[in-house]
């Protein structure tokens, strides 16, 4: 049943009039580097900026580092080994008048490092060009959180008070399987009737998302040079054979059928090579045969697949292929898990947020917005599996996440701000005058 949405035209006009202001909000976050360099991070300065934006909107404010939350290190979902000195979450609660449902927007402020590849624009300038705005983290996911902040500002400046609370939280250390920041906010007591995670979904409303794991395969040889008749064994050749065989795994893995209807039109599970290293990579000139060569892979899975199931299936598949390969079968090959497993998760069937957001999307896109599972992993499992708050993924349209020239599409971004503001009103309800 399609809900009757009380659309407010003033919201749309405000957002169009404030278009440049909203782009400047994006710049205010993109211009502050917040790269995650495990186990450390650099989110403090950008979190101060977020704190200022939310405080000016009259939110009740809170800030805390993940490791100062009681009980977090004993929680089964806590990931040990990360450092949180001067890495704090920011939470702003815009109190409603009472009697309405609550809504929480959650997103991470850490980004992957810039990397060595060249950009055509300054990654920290928020440059606008050809209908796109560029910047490191603007798509994943500073832009999505700006959309929530701008939506809240629209309601504030228009004098639209809600019945239910709106919570906006920005967390630290999500990249590389972190998610302790998200867990900390849950254990701090921030819960709501629904959460929206504005990860880069390209406007798709995602009631479920995939999970995934990152693994390292190391090939051991015999290092050195044959000055005295020694016979070094170069593990790079075994790794090269593995890379060719990995294609067979990719094809088999992509053909898996999901249990959930939200992935019924999924193009196939992703698995790919993330890195190949041989020898002492920190040494500029390696004048010998390397002793080891390693391959890092990322493998995604549907929500019904558990951590050990994914790892064991991958290892078993590759070991079976390797048994018939003369080179690999005579090489010492070791498999290890690199980061925490990110389980797929989703909201309960029939949740009210889906028809509501779909109806709102229809206002701005005649064909409506896609509603299906997200083909990526994120920290949503901290909500769906470890809290009382169900969470969907719904975020900007853009491209080049984790790559040079990351961007968002500006027109679609403005529509996202409108949809977030209209969702706040429709979900939380307007306060009675």
From TrEMBL:
Database matches in SUPFAM superfamilies: Zn-dependent exopeptidases (SSF53187)
Give any GO molecular function from the UniProt entry. Answer: hydrolase activity
Keyword set for this entry?
Hydrolase, Zinc
Superkingdom of the organism of origin: Bacteria
Protein's UniProt keywords contain Hydrolase? yes
Lineage in the entry? Bacteria, Bacillati, Bacillota, Bacilli, Bacillales
Q: What is this protein called?
A: Acetylornithine deacetylase
The keyword Hydrolase belongs to this UniProt entry's keyword annotation: yes
